[in-house]
Amino acid sequence: MKHQALQQPLPSQQPHRKAIFEPQVRPRPQASPEHHTSGRRLEGRVALIAGGDRGIGRAVAIAFARQGADVAFIYHDEHGEAAKTVEAVESLGRECLKIAIDVGDEVLCGGAVDQVVAYFGKLDILVNNAAEQHPQESLEDLTEAQLLRTFQANVFSMFYLTKAALPHLERGARIINTTSVTAYRGSSHLLDFAATNGAIVAFTRSLSLALVQRGILVNGVAAGPVAMAPIPSALDALGLARSGADTPMQRAAQPDEIAACYVFLASADASYMSGQILHPNGGEIING
């Protein structure tokens, strides 16, 4: 005797299920953003970039200008490089203000922010990108003076500039901190530099929690090897040329490849992100 196959009810015969309609959700799901993702995403914004005279900082200044932002940037003493950044930004029809200071000095950082607000009338985006690195073969070679200087330039400057900028930042403002892949995988010859970048990650996450209720979003970018590094370094030309050879992509990034991350984080596209770190590092898998 053959068994009859069980007949499954057709969809129209299945028990009625109460549908969940989108209008029941508050706020309603929004599939099409109110802001426009094409065109000039930073129109009318004013950005201050620490370390904007070369490398990543210059690329970010140019990328912001292309998106409609006016730009101020801080640099130390490379006046020729700073002039190139100004020329590039102004060629895109945006205003550019350069400020030469030592970011390791809190008073000077406060004065720089005051200059920006006096010149542009406001401040919307702060990019903490100033940094130094001084490779040493061993911990024994790392002096107290170098350790203090590296932390002053890389970490203290972020506290100083952010503290000075906060009274001028309104809801919707962005703070973007530059850290490094060395914060996650370490570096045997950049002990102090890697340590500062670990501190920057913790600073970014903590600051995001402190400011989220004020509507100020704080994120970071942990760059991998970058061609023509933007920070003073003892690496020789051969070392720079080989930089990035150990990444999955087997090359260093161009600064403009990194700058795209900053544009995203500064724009309305990143409105639901804070306390996060982006990892443009040539394909290296990083936990954290």
Structure description:
It is built from eight helices and seven strands. It is of the alpha/beta class. It has one domain (41-278): NAD(P)-binding Rossmann-like Domain (Rossmann fold), CATH 3.40.50.720. Strands 3-2-1-4-5-6-7 form a seven-stranded parallel beta sheet, with helices on both faces. It starts with 45 loop residues before the first strand and ends in a 10-residue tail after the last strand.
Q: Stretches where pLDDT falls below 50 for ≥5 residues?
A: 229-235
Question: What is the spatial order of strands in the main beta sheet?
Answer: 3-2-1-4-5-6-7
Proportion of helical residues: 25-40%
Based on helices, strands and strand pairing, what is the structural class? alpha/beta
Question: What CATH first level would be assigned?
Answer: Alpha Beta
CATH architecture: 3-Layer(aba) Sandwich
Quaternary assembly: single chain
CATH superfamily: NAD(P)-binding Rossmann-like Domain
Distance between the termini: 63 Å
How many structurally independent domains? 1
Number of H- or I-type helical stretches: 8
**Main beta-sheet annotation:** 7 strands, parallel
| Outline | globular
CATH topology: Rossmann fold
Record field, number of beta strands: 7
Describe the secondary structure blueprint for this structure.
Elements: E1 46-50, H1 55-66, E2 70-75, H2 79-90, E3 96-100, H3 106-120, E4 125-128, H4 144-165, E5 174-180, H5 182-185, H6 191-211, E6 217-223, H7 237-242, H8 255-266, E7 277-278
Parallel strand pairs: 1-2, 1-4, 2-3, 4-5, 5-6, 6-7
Helix pairs in contact: 1-2, 1-8, 3-4, 4-6
